[in-house]
Design brief:
The chain is mainly alpha-helical. The protein contains 19 helices and no strands.
Length: about 475
């Protein structure tokens, strides 16, 4: 007589624990992603404080990104060897202490050194956080857990620049880093109290050649993609960096396929849902997802001539759309399934991006706000669906490598999205032989980016109708 209640109680406990772990990981992710976006608004003030030109401060962003690229491939092995909870705690400690060091920096070399440590903490935090969520969430709770850890990626890039501008204007740039301290301390306390410790019983030896090739290839590729947005530095170094990154990446893949104990298990790519969500259509669609927040502020300020404050209010509608979809995503996926949602919603998201090419300073504000809401809503749903489906069919033995591979590909898509958008703007301006960007350049960029998203959305048709049904609950309907 007690078997059913005991089973229900066990399921409820597992569900509650999964949500709690996901929420704790989300707090750490928010701290990390907020820091990545908030710094851009304060670079001129920081340069003035250090006595260097504002453009020289970009090295702080570059070293952070490259440090992440070097150590992300190692994160899964460290989680298996020393325990995901322990590595996650270490990541938060490193990130928090480095934030304190950034805020107290008195010179550019000190700041760069602190950013290297911060990049190391960030490299460990993202994939290991995902590993913790995957290990603590039953498949029935994976969708809700993924939705929780996805909101920082939607929230931070929008609120970061606005918050950074406010802090820099009314306090000082130092507080852009000091606000991480309470977040880090809260995260540490919650992880230590509520997340159980675990580690692999039979940890593999470290694959040094795999680590070297993967890290070097990823670092060169990301640095090359980042340079595309800065054409004034010259095209040849950028092309050489990207080409070298691709060649070394190919050598890394070749090694990982042959090594007896590879740093990363590539067998996850044999799982259709993971391959489509991360490597194939997923990466292509993320290019469109990441290009849009880069283009919109430029459109409103350069194309429309709005002030930063008015542009920020327009972006706020986009952000509210991102948040507004959270309560709708889970029941929608349960009702229609991953394939239908990712195709139909992907088409809507792509159409909303292309629609941004049709608006102008004369467009009624209510119409622009409505478009921003639709773009934000559809972006949020697609983002959550992609991140959830990726791990729907991943075995326990593949989790660490799959989380690491997913993080690496998302970094590439993030930088590639910005690089493609910047390249389209620059090419359009050059072809029109104009000294500055105009509204027509943004229209071309939005049409191209929207078309990229549309192609990716149609690519999801290769998924079977029941893809990820165990996670979405779609198979139980009707």
């Amino acid at each position: 007589m007690t078997a059913v209640p005991d089973s229900e109680a066990s399921t409820e406990t597992a569900s509650s624990n999964a949500r709690r772990v996901a929420l704790i990981v989300a707090i750490a992710f928010f701290m990390q992603l907020l820091d990545s976006t908030i710094i851009s608004t304060s670079l001129p003030q920081m340069g003035q404080s250090f006595g260097v030109p504002a453009v020289a401060m970009s090295i702080g962003i570059t070293v952070y990104m490259l440090t992440m690229a070097v150590f992300v491939p190692l994160s899964g092995w460290l989680a298996d060897r020393f325990g995901a909870r322990n590595i996650f705690l270490l990541a938060i400690v490193l990130f928090t202490l480095a934030s304190l060091a950034c805020g107290f920096s008195q010179s550019l070399p000190q700041f760069v050194a602190a950013r290297v440590v911060q990049g190391l903490g960030s490299a460990l935090m993202t994939p290991v956080g995902r590993i913790l969520v995957l290990r603590n969430a039953p498949k029935s709770e994976l969708l809700n857990a993924t939705a929780l850890i996805t909101w920082p990626a939607l929230f931070a890039p929008v609120v970061g620049p606005v918050l950074g501008g406010f802090i820099t204007t009314y306090l000082s740039w130092h507080w852009n880093f000091f606000i991480n301290i309470p977040l880090g301390l809260i995260g540490l306390a919650l992880v230590a109290r509520f997340i159980p410790g675990d580690r692999e019983a039979d940890a593999k030896p470290l694959d040094w050649p795999g680590f070297f090739l993967t890290s070097l290839g990823l670092a060169l590729l990301l640095y090359g993609l980042e340079r595309i947005a800065h054409p004034e530095d010259g095209a040849l170094p950028t092309v050489l960096l990207v080409a070298a990154g691709i060649v070394i990446g190919w050598l890394a893949v070749r090694h990982l396929r042959r090594a007896p104990h590879p740093l990363l298990d590539l067998s996850a790519f044999k799982v259709l849902t993971f391959a489509i969500s991360t490597l194939a259509a997923g990466t292509i669609f993320r290019v469109a997802i990441n290009a849009t927040p880069f283009l919109l502020p430029l459109l409103f300020q350069v194309g429309f001539g709005l002030s930063p404050v008015d542009a920020g209010l327009m972006i706020l509608a986009y952000f509210l759309g991102n948040l507004g979809m959270k309560t709708v995503t889970t029941p929608t996926l349960r009702r229609f399934g991953f394939r239908t949602v990712m195709v139909v919603n992907g088409i809507i998201a792509s159409a909303s991006i292309m629609a941004c090419a049709a608006i102008s300073p004369d467009t009624p504000q209510a119409l622009v706000v409505a478009l921003m809401l639709v773009a934000g809503l559809s972006r949020s749903m697609q983002f959550t669906a992609l991140n959830t489906l990726a791990f729907a069919d991943i075995d326990a033995t593949q989790r660490s490598s799959a989380a690491t591979l997913s993080s690496m590909l998302q970094q590439i898509a993030m930088l590639f999205g910005v690089a493609v958008a910047a390249a389209i703007l620059n090419l359009s301006q050059i072809m029109r032989d104009r000294p500055a960007l105009d509204l027509v350049d943004f229209r071309i960029a939005f049409v191209v980016i929207g078309t990229i998203g549309l192609v990716a959305a149609l690519r999801f048709l290769v998924l079977p109708p029941g893809a990820g049904a165990e996670v979405s609950g779609h198979a139980t309907q009707g």
